[in-house]
Amino acid sequence: MIRNRFMSAIIPADLHQAEPLDHADGQILENAGTLWIVATPIGNLGDVSDRARDILSRVPIIAAEDTRTSQKLVPARKAPVRWFALHDHNEASAVERLIKHLEQGQDIALVSDAGTPLISDPGFRLVSAAHDHGIRVSPVPGPSAAIAALSAAGLATDRFSFEGFLPAKRSARQQRLQALADRTETHIFYVPARDLIKVLEDLQHVFGGQRLAAVAREISKQFETIRRGPVDGLLDWVQADSDQLRGECVVLTAGADNSNSMNPIQPRALAEQLAAELPPARAARILTRLSGMPRKQAFELIEQLRQS
Ligand code: SAM
Questions:
Q1: Are residues 164 and 138 in the same domain?
Q2: Is residue 248 lining ligand 1, measured as CB closer than 6 Å?
Q3: Claim to verify: residue 64 and residue 112 sit in the same structural domain
C-alpha cells in the first residue's frame, strides 16, 4: 500500500488507530495530499470532535463554504492556513486549483457551514475530482442534522431515504411528495423552519393528515424541539405557536405502511389486543411504540379497556 507521506504528520497515533484503506481501484497518487471531509457541529460547538479539531489545526489549506463562519472552529491555530471559499457558485473553478494543491502534496480539509459537507452542501465536485485524480479522500465523521433527527424522531430507522430540500414551488413540491407517498421507508426532509406550515400542509394534502411524522428543530441548540405525531396534530401545533417557525428544522415522515400510520381506528384495535394479552404497563409501552400515541394516553386507554 502506498502511504501518504502527510498522513502520519497530520494524525497523531492515538487519534488514528485504524489503517486507512486504499481506494477500490488501488491507485492512490504517491506523495499527494489527502482531502479530509470534516464534519462540524450543527449548533452546539461542543460537538466538534477531537479529531476534527486536530485536522483543522494542522492542514495547510481549509476549503470552506463561508470562511468567516468556519474560522470560529480554529481560533488558536499556530500554523499558517490558507482559506479557500468553496460554495455552489464557484465550485467548478475552485476544484481545479484545489486539486493542484493536493497533487503537490498539500492536505486540504473541506468543511461546510454546519454538519457534514456534501449533505445538502457543496463539495461533491471536489470529492469526485479527487477520486478521478487518485487523491486519497478521507471522512472525519461527525454531526449531520438528518441522522441526528432520525435518531431522536421515534420513526422506523431500518430503512430511510434522505430527500434533502423540497422544491420551493408548491406544485413541484407536491409532485415530489406524490412520488414518495406510497413508499414504505421513513423520509427525511430539510426544511427551513419558516416553511414548516406550508410543508406540513403539503404533507397533509399528499400523505394524509393521519400519517405519522416528526419535527426536529434547532437540534443541539438552546431551543431544541423534537416532536412526533400525526401530520394533522403537528400542523395544529405549529400554527398555534409561531416560535416553531424560527431556526432550522428537519421534518421526517413515517413510511406508508400500517404499523407506521396514525389511523385512529387501528391504535384502538391494537390497544384492545394488547390489553387482553399483556400486563398493562407492557401493553401501554408497546401501544406507544407502535402507534405513536403519547405514553400517558396509551396507559389511560389500556386501563379503560381492561376495566370495560
Ligand atoms: N450539511 C448539513 C448536515 O450535515 O446536516 C446540512 C446543511 S443544509 C444547507 C441546512 C439544513 O440542515 C437546514 O435548513 C435544516 O433543514 C438542517 N439543519 C441544520 N442544522 C440543524 C439543526 N441544528 N436543527 C435542525 N435542522 C438543522
A1: no
A2: yes
A3: yes
| Ligand 1 contact via 33 beta carbon (within 6 Å) | no
What is the chain's length? 308
CB-based contact 107:59 (threshold 8 Å): yes
Which residue's alpha carbon is at the smallest distance from atom 11 of ligand 1? 190
Closest residue by CA, ligand 1 atom 20: 42
- Which range of residues forms the domain containing residue 283? 267-307
Centre of ligand 1 to C-alpha 43, Å, is: 9
Q: Are residues 166 and 125 in the same domain?
A: no
Atom of ligand 1 nearest to the CA of 192: 14
Report strand pairing: 82-85 vs 61-64: parallel
Q: Closest Cα to atom 13, ligand 1: which residue?
A: 248
Residue 244 in domain? yes
Residue 281 domain-assigned (yes or no): yes
Both 249 and 218 in one domain: the answer is: yes
Of 105, 99, 73, nearest to 86 by C-alpha is: 99
Question: 116 in ligand 1 pocket by Cβ < 6 Å?
Answer: yes
For residue 186 and ligand 1, the question of a CB distance below 6 A is answered with: no
CA distances from 152 to 10, 13, 214 (A): 34, 34, 9
| pTM for this model (two decimals) | 0.79
Number of compact structural domains in the chain = 3
The answer for residues whose C-beta is within 8 angstroms of residue 41's C-beta and 6 or more apart is 47, 48, 114, 115, 142, 143, 220
pLDDT one digit per residue (tens) for the chain, 308 residues? 333 433 434 444 444 444 444 554 658 888 999 999 999 999 999 999 999 999 999 999 999 999 888 888 887 777 789 999 999 889 888 999 999 999 999 999 999 999 999 999 999 999 999 999 999 999 999 999 999 999 999 999 999 999 999 999 999 999 999 999 999 999 999 999 999 999 999 999 999 999 999 999 999 999 999 999 999 999 999 999 999 999 999 999 999 974 544 454 567 888 888 999 999 999 988 888 777 677 888 898 899 888 88
Tell me, in angstroms, the distance from the centre of ligand 1 to residue 111's CA.
Answer: 14
